Amino acid sequence: MNAYIFLIGLCVVIITSFFFGLLAKKTNIPSVILLIFTGIGLGQLLEYFNIQPEYFSTLEILGIVGLIMIVLEAALDLELTWKKWPIIWKSFMIAFVLLTATSFFIAFIIRGFMQGLELLPALIYAIPLSIMSSAIIIPSVSNLSEDKREFMVYESTFSDILGIMAFYLLLENMNASSASRVAFVISSNIFLTIVMSVLLSYLLVYIIQYVRSEAKFFLFLAVLVLLYAVAKLFHFSSLLIILSFGLLLRNYRVLLFGKLKNWFNPDAIDRVFDNFKMITVETSFLIRTFFFVVFGMSMSLETVTSLWVWLISISILVGIYFLRYILHYIVLRKNIFPQVFIAPRGLISILLFYAIPEEFQLPDFESGVLFVIIIVTSIIMAWSLIANPFSKNTTTMSMSETKEL
């Protein structure tokens, strides 16, 4: 392909994604759906001209970088205060319980459709389908009232992090000799990762305030990606490094105590945060755009014509929303719309699905299930947002509702 035609194509995709974002804000239709269908169209066009690029390596790299950027963007949005503590612990509890319950429910659904399958291999496929997509939720809930928006940001971020940790910890302990051994490995992994993440985060924030170069932001992004990749090679839950760095940069006034306050310059950190936030948002937008377009290009439309795909997809979708309704009603009691229906699957589900090692892959499991669930959950979210009567610009929650949340 001519280099100039390729560049023209990249620029057109970015410009189109920008207008999709504007359309999403006006209509509440997630731009991700439009990007995926754009990718499908481009894929059909390339197939017509008999061009068959290699998608997987591109999708994997975009997914890893996108995952880092999305978690970092979410962490930079999360404000830790005692006032927000009820939202934080409730969203964490819902994310944890829903991830666990949904994963086992989907695993049993998969086992029901694939006779003779063991529980652990089924869980490997179930976890990616159980993770909410902060990549879709965060830019889509801007028109909700502040408390609902923050709740969904926290819940989706916790779902991402817990889901990724659970997926890789399960993979790394598939051949463990006993349940006690698995529990020990997981707990020690999490403990060591938390200690390492906190220490590295304080060190990076301390250093970044003294770096005067204008190119320091992509330098530190490179450092974060490097730390993530190295920690992943050593089988640590490396996403915690990204989360803790973002949380510290956003909430350093709360997280600095004792003599640590004397080591940090608030004015310098505030300037760093503003610029870092802007670059993170811009980079996340770029990565998301190409990831979902490439995912659409890699999709085979033949996989969604199977009756088996639709039967298992519908069964999974019913379980997802039934469990969400039950748990949201128990924890929040009221004011659960449209949160119950905001449960899209997206970038992380795709990334983890394609990260399943060859020895654990199920030849009979159609990738069309992933595609159907991503599209349907995004459409349901779009419907709930369009039907939602509240807007942060027009209506806010009452004081009683806020206390209940």
How would you sum up this structure, described in words?
The chain has helices spanning 3-27, 31-48, 56-77, 85-113, 119-130, 134-140, 146-172, 179-208, 216-233, 239-250, 252-255, 266-298, 307-332, 347-354, 368-387, 399-404. It is mainly alpha-helical and 405 residues long. Helix 3 (56-77) packs parallel to helix 10, helix 4 packs antiparallel against helix 13 and helix 5 (119-130) runs antiparallel to helix 7 (146-172).
What brief labels describe this structure?
73% helix; mainly alpha; 405 residues; 16 helices; single chain; globular
> Main β-sheet, in a few words?
none
The Cα radius of gyration reads: 21 Å
Write the H/E string, N to C: HHHHHHHHHHHHHHHH
Termini separation = 54 Å
How many E-type strands? 0
Sequence stretches where pLDDT stays below 50 over 5 or more residues? 391-405
Number of helices: 16
Shape: globular
Helices and strands in order, then pairings?
Layout: H1 3-27, H2 31-48, H3 56-77, H4 85-113, H5 119-130, H6 134-140, H7 146-172, H8 179-208, H9 216-233, H10 239-250, H11 252-255, H12 266-298, H13 307-332, H14 347-354, H15 368-387, H16 399-404
Question: What's the short version?
Answer:
This protein has 405 residues and is mostly helical.
